[in-house]
Amino acid sequence: MTDASAPEKLVGALSSGLKILRYLASSSTPMGVTRIAKDLDLNSSTCFNLLKTLVHERLVTFDESNKTYAMGLGLVELAKGSLEKASYVRMMRPHLQELAERHNITTTLWQRARDDRVVLVDLAESGSALRVHMSIGQRLPMYIAALGRCMAAHSGLTLVEMRRKVSELRWEDGPSFETYMSEVQEVRQKGYAVDHGNYAKGVITVSSPILDFESRPLMAVSAVGFSSQFSTTALQALCEDLRERCREATFAVSGGIVKKLWDADASPLPH
Q: Counting beta carbons within 10 angstroms of the beta carbon of residue 237, is it exposed (0 to 12), middle (13 to 18) or buried (19 or more)?
């Protein structure tokens, strides 16, 4: 959504809570509930309950000795997440565009969400008249398609846990669980995954993960094209190009802590 106009019905409590946060952010000193309520023209009891809620959510802190409120570190965490995502998008955008143009495909950048899903945060398209179109903001199950195999390879989940999650996925022509896990194992060795029409018939997707400093999957880059446009040589070139760019991104994100991402680690997945 890009429409910033006011909704038909505002949620009063939410608006008042945000007013309090903006008020405290602009204040040079902690403030008491009476002063806050007066300056914002809020009912004292309502203001007090809103502040208690904000303290509980760690967005505001309460000084027991002075009975005053100030901004909390919870807001820093929220801002950090937003700023990090924006910086990752800026970092990867040139790579997305170069991949799209060089291999004549659509490239997408997926951010891991908290509910076992990923969200599309950026993309680049080639100049081809025939291309796969996707929309920023689109969400997918975390473990589906090529990017899902990448996420699964670094998830730390047991086979029992992974079987349950994979059983909930909806594919056009899904692989068996044994095949899926074999391909997940290959991600740990090769650094990329390929979906040959499992998620969408006639479409090939190549994905590679971007890992954080603990080698956990943070994001994934996926290249999407129609099966008919890829020769064996062209597909392999795309896989290697994508892997190397995501390797470099992982080094940047991890601050150099992750030194070897996809060396010959053929150790079995946990049981």
A: middle
Q: Pairing relation of β-strands 117-124 and 203-211?
A: unpaired
* 8-state DSSP, 174: P
18: which DSSP letter? H
Spatial neighbors of 25 by CB under 8 A, at least 6 apart, are 71
pTM of the model: 0.66
Contact call for residues 75 and 88 (beta carbons, < 8 A): no
Report how far residue 122's alpha carbon sits from residue 96's, in angstroms, rounded to the nearest whole number.
9
pLDDT tens digit at each of 271 positions of the chain: 344 455 567 788 899 999 999 999 888 889 999 999 999 999 999 999 999 999 998 889 999 999 999 988 777 666 656 656 677 788 888 999 999 999 999 999 999 887 789 999 999 998 776 667 788 888 999 999 999 999 999 999 999 999 999 999 999 999 999 999 999 999 999 999 999 999 999 999 999 999 987 888 889 999 999 998 899 999 999 999 999 999 988 888 776 555 544 443 434 443 3
- The CA distance from 218 to 96, in Å, is 17
The encoded tokens of residue 18 equal 């945000």
Residues for the chain: how many in total?
A: 271
- Residue whose tokens read 């967005």: 59
- Identify residue 100 by its one-letter amino acid code: A
Q: What is the DSSP letter of 59?
A: S
Q: Is 155 helix (H, G, I), strand (E, B) or coil?
A: coil
What φ, ψ does residue 114 adopt, rounded to 5°?
-90, -10
Strands (DSSP E) contained in the chain are 60-63, 68-71, 106-112, 117-124, 139-141, 193-196, 203-211, 217-226
Residues β-bridged to residue 122: 109
